[in-house]
Amino acid sequence: MSPKSVRLMTAAALATSVFGASACVPLKGHQGYVIDSDLVNSVQAGTDNRQSVLAVLGKPTFTSEFNQGDWYYISRDVRNFAYNNPHVHDQVTLRISFDSRGVVSAVRRSGAEQVASISPSGKTTPTLGKKRSFFDELFGNIGTVGAIGGGQGGNNNTGGGRDTP
To answer: What is the reported pLDDT for 19?
Structure first.
């Protein structure tokens, strides 16, 4: 072997090992609210109200329709390898409850135990009605174009009068 081919093979092996090793590194991501512990700890039940919580923590991730409109701040860290679906590594859900006057009544935290794991069954969604094949879907509208009640053409419904030739 010539020295040039040895260098090319060495470079190819090095590139393969570098790219191969980088595929094993987990990709980290963050979703949602960025929690600052000092700001969260400054919100006190009985003293703060909706306006002060909004000024300190900002707009909530979402609000409840019930229970006096509780506010939720959700922070989630996810990890995944290469092209796999991300999975939850850590999650903090901050729930702030208000009384009828709009004053904070409770501040609760929960973690990743609240994350639901859903595994769908089967590759199709069961539906009611007629089962249609691929060709039914592809050619099912042939003949309906221009028919009464479907497609274009047919009646001239522009003013309530009779069709004129």
So the answer is: 56
